Amino acid sequence: MKRELSTKSNPKARLRSTAEFARHVGLARSTVSRVLNRQPGLRAGTIEKVERALRETGFAPNAHARLLRGEHSHTIGVCVKDFLTPPIVRKMALLQQAMRSRGFSCIIEMLEPGTSESVIQHFLSLRVDGIAFIGYYDQGEPEVGLAGLVHFGTPHVVMDQFGVPDANTVTLDRSRAMEMAIDYLVGLGHRRFGLIGISQRMLGEFDRITGVRRGLQRHGLDPAVVVTSRDQYHPRIEDYAFGAAVARDFAALPGRPTAYLALNDDIAIGAMHGFVESGLQVPDSVSVVGFNNQDVCRMPNPELTSIDQQIEATVSSAVDILLSQIGKPRPAAPIIRTIEPVLVVRGSTGPAAR
Amino acid sequence: MKRELSTKSNPKARLRSTAEFARHVGLARSTVSRVLNRQPGLRAGTIEKVERALRETGFAPNAHARLLRGEHSHTIGVCVKDFLTPPIVRKMALLQQAMRSRGFSCIIEMLEPGTSESVIQHFLSLRVDGIAFIGYYDQGEPEVGLAGLVHFGTPHVVMDQFGVPDANTVTLDRSRAMEMAIDYLVGLGHRRFGLIGISQRMLGEFDRITGVRRGLQRHGLDPAVVVTSRDQYHPRIEDYAFGAAVARDFAALPGRPTAYLALNDDIAIGAMHGFVESGLQVPDSVSVVGFNNQDVCRMPNPELTSIDQQIEATVSSAVDILLSQIGKPRPAAPIIRTIEPVLVVRGSTGPAAR
DNA sequence: CTGAAAGCGCTTACAG
DNA sequence: CTGAAAGCGCTTACAG
């Protein structure tokens, strides 16, 4: 009676339950439920009547009640790094698209430092079917929460982040990326290399440093001699300005390198401008290689040579990894996939100046 | 007993209910519930015991069961346009951050064309406390679903999209933005203007066109005479290339404009490059103004003058609008807020060439 | 602190 | 097709 009252006194109130809705249509609750769940054996007229009322009233059955009965939520929790770089955004968008086409929706939460455990807990309380992580968290942030997922065999996939023991992971082969860049630059005659933003100091850069070393050694060059870094003299507050500052520093350096590898495209473009401001020319005096192959590579003149992360391949691997766990027995060993990068050559690189 | 079996035979299975959890801790279900809900009158030892077990087992109480009891879900549904431009991403990130700090989480869904009604329905079935829309949908996409929200008084806020009757809205004053740009350029001596990507053809650009007209008329200039567009001769597949193509076209035009207003920063930067390729100089021969004031404005040389959307102000208005509806009686009239843009002058604009 | 009970809204199996 | 009933996991008011 409370219900009838509220429905009558305010005709604009939304119907809140199948009971109210069934009364509205003049059918039994169970019949309505059967129509909503597309069960067979119903008269066409009944189905039609329910669907019309559904459109008219805008009634949405309470998902929590259905989920309480233990069905799959068909929902994925997505943790993204709170600093949304273009590659992260792209992965997020592609992941959501791919999962939606498979009938899953995504709850996206940004992980600010210190929040990962509560975010994971929130996802678990919503009984998501799986959890995806996007982006590299250098504070070692999500490890604790992830350990729990691994321990209990909760479906999950970690993109970009590496070094998480026993987690299902898909990562770009950053070491290989650096080797490819070195191969290419050595082929152009370069023998002295500058790193911009790629520092030993950062744990996340370990793989890239390794790749640079390995690439150089294969060409008989000694990393300790031919690689220079000036990062330590410049704070990295904002990427573009940081790249420009490091480049101006390099420009003034006697015997400066002729080829530069930057941590990302923004730093690389900042560096290009820093070099030009200092009277050097790109690529005639110095070559610059970015990382990520973002749209922004086309903004400077000349356009920026960069390394492509192959984001489509990464996301599609991640989706496979997730789906292979949902509703299936736990895999015996963690699933690990590595993605091969691609070097995209544009105008910012050329033969070494003699 | 089924429960005990599963718990015992597989010690790694996650506990699924407060009943299982209470048995695990050796307390009554109601006691556990009281601890979880921080109710008063519990012994410190009991609280401590429950919290330790919570950490050890990683138990997460089923949120659907709690939500079924009709409490606020403290969740906001966020609809974003599926094409994630930097301003949209920024709004999304700021909105989520602001809502989280107020105890709400966000479910983000990208609206592909034709999906808006089902996405809204999904949000409603999850009993979200409100729904936010981010981005301009030129197909008139979300109108139908929004009409339902308006009709039933469901808390909502629409950012960017305008022309939705009776919806609670916060929009940038795009007309004012164009007036500001015209004022500034006329002050620099410009008398002939080119529009790049701002076309009458697009409904969403109506306000900008109005602003350009109004600005010119105030300076005694006739829009029909002093404004030129070449958009119709170039398909807009990709913004940067589109801007470059239109600029090359303008460069070859006798009596070409000296100042250009672009739809967005990417188009503007493409245009700068198109002009330079055609032998013109920015800003000595032509001035270019972008829109959005994205980070990318700093990438070209000279840097791009642009119009800032004041995204922080927009989002904070949107949050106010949302919170003012949640748990409160329906406002008598739709809430409409307008945000004042800011012109950010950089190197791409200068005095008109004589 | 315990324990039994009610009720949130749904689905489903059952008898009619 | 109807109608009554059970059960999902939680919270809360109640008697002990």
Task: Give the key terms.
homodimer; 354 residues; alpha/beta; 434 Repressor (Amino-terminal Domain); Rossmann fold; six-stranded parallel β-sheet; four-stranded parallel β-sheet; 14 helices; DNA-binding
Describe the structure.
The structure is a homodimer of 354-residue chains. Chain A folds into 3 domains: 2-61, 434 Repressor (Amino-terminal Domain) (Orthogonal Bundle), CATH 1.10.260; 75-172 and 311-339, Rossmann fold; 174-308, Response regulator (Rossmann fold, 3-Layer(aba) Sandwich). The first copy, chain A, has helices at residues 2-9, 18-25, 29-36, 44-57, 63-68, 86-100, 116-125, 143-152, 174-187, 206-218, 223-226, 239-251, 265-277, 311-323, and strands at residues 75-81, 105-111, 130-134, 156-159, 169-172, 193-196, 227-229, 259-262, 287-289, 306-308, 336-339, 342-344. With 354 residues, chain A is α/β, with parallel strands linked by helices. In chain A, helix 2 (18-25) packs across helix 3, helix 6 (86-100) crosses helix 14 (311-323) and helix 12 crosses helix 13 (265-277). The termini of chain A are far apart. Residues 1-11 of chain A have low confidence and may be disordered. In chain A, the strands form 3 sheets. In chain A, strands 2-1-3-4-5-11 form a 6-stranded parallel sheet, sandwiched between helices. A 4-stranded parallel sheet of chain A has the order 7-6-8-9, sandwiched between helices. A two-stranded antiparallel sheet of chain A has the order 10-12. Chain A is 42% helix and 14% strand. In chain A, helix 8 (143-152) links the parallel strand 3 (130-134) and strand 4 (156-159). At the A-B interface, helix 5, helix 6, strand 2, helix 7 and helix 8 of A face helix 5, helix 6, strand 2, helix 7 and helix 8 of B. Chain A binds a DNA duplex (16 and 16 nucleotides) through helix 3 and helix 5.
